[in-house]
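Whether sequence alone determines local backbone shape is best considered at the level of individual chains. In the encoding step, the backbone of a single protein was reduced to a row of integers, each denoting a local shape. For completeness, the protein is quoted in full, as a sequence line and a line of structure tokens.
***
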Amino acid sequence: MAAAASSTDRPGALEITRKLAAICGTPFARFAGPADEVAGRTARWVAVPGGPHAAAEVLRLAAAHDLTVVPRGAGTKIDWGAAPAQVDIMLDTGRLAGVWHEPQGSSVAEIGAGTPLRAVQATLERTGRRLPVDAPSPGATLGGVLAADEAGPLRHRHGSPCAQLVGVRYLDADGELVSVGLPGTAQFGQAAPSARQGGSPAAGPDGGAATGGATAVLGGAEVPGLDVARLLCGSQGGLGVLVSATMRVQAVPAGRVWVSRPVWTPLEVHDLVRAVLAARLDPAAVELDLPVPVSLPRRRIPASHPSVAGRPDHPAVTGRPARPAAAGSLAVLLEGGPADVAERADRLTALLGPEAVVNHAAPEWWGRYPFAPGDTALRIEVPINDLHAAVYALRDAAGTPVPVRGSAGIGAVHAALPGSLPPERVASILAAVRGVLLARQGRCVVVSAPAPVRRAVDLWGELPTLPRLRNAKAHLDPHHRLAPGRLPGGL
């Protein structure tokens, strides 16, 4: 990039800082610090615009000076994906926050991109509603959740957060504010006139007409505005800067219970999940936790010891070996009316057997990732009938059990490899697992990884949608100003 200044100590850089301060306010524009990184790439400036029009001005400034822009929400997933080629301005969306919704009974709510998801749920809960979204990252903003297409256990019934999207307002690379989706939902200010908005209605989320939607031409074909909006999901800010999103909302369920049971092998999980789905119990989520087993030395306890006296089933009395400790847990969430939930829970416990337990609180591991900062985090997506094969393939390739957790009911789980593994070892594991998944229409993506691993491995693997993504980038950001290099294929 031919930037206005190549470093922050040159006069041109001070001029950019002054202009950002004039747009955002002096407290909200500064030179970036060591913590202002995107996947290890340090930014040069941080701008925190106070509204959509100020954010548009930041993007226009960037365009005028040929600077790159990378959006940031709460930063919970700032290390996910590939490092951008360059980060000139980090656009912090923290002041693009707020929840606007109709009185109780409305089926949608418009939410500022910088609003923490927890704040959204707390606000909606006052009127007995919720977003059917439960992204695992603590403190995540709605914009960050959509930009990463991050989904939690509720995706089993409701799909990803992007499936709940009915409208969006975003800024394109030139700083133009574009509104797409259903008519009459925007309350965050009117969008600026857009040269990309077609005069005819665009197809809505259910195939109906949605007036006012932007229409893009991708690969020679017109794409309705809401499809453009959904392209922003998972784009890591590389196609546009989210300003607000209009989402479906629903009533908070009156009853919720979790039915859990221990599991010993991935094949057993496969059989149990098939039985649960075949029973038509309408689960809200079906989650699996397979942690790395911890082997502890066991003392041999004589049959005369008080701790086993009166227990004729104990191995010390029977002489038969004890059943090994469970390898993990399968948990099913049931939601609905209290009586209906209780009836389904009874049916489910009968199906899962005597080891099933009903709780009114989620397991400790529920809705959490199995990886920690510094690990190589993997996301595996595969048809549910082949999930056990994917887990076995990962174990075989790694040569040891690997922690796996996620939505077994739809075949989407996460796994963790130690961050200490050398990049070539991670690459060989990925190659082996992807080879198994290829024949099963599955994928293995590196969500995040230490910098040496990120530089050495193919993060995404085979991606059939890459041509469409390339067309979208060429149309929405032809000069590669928005998070360049964050998307697959170096886009």
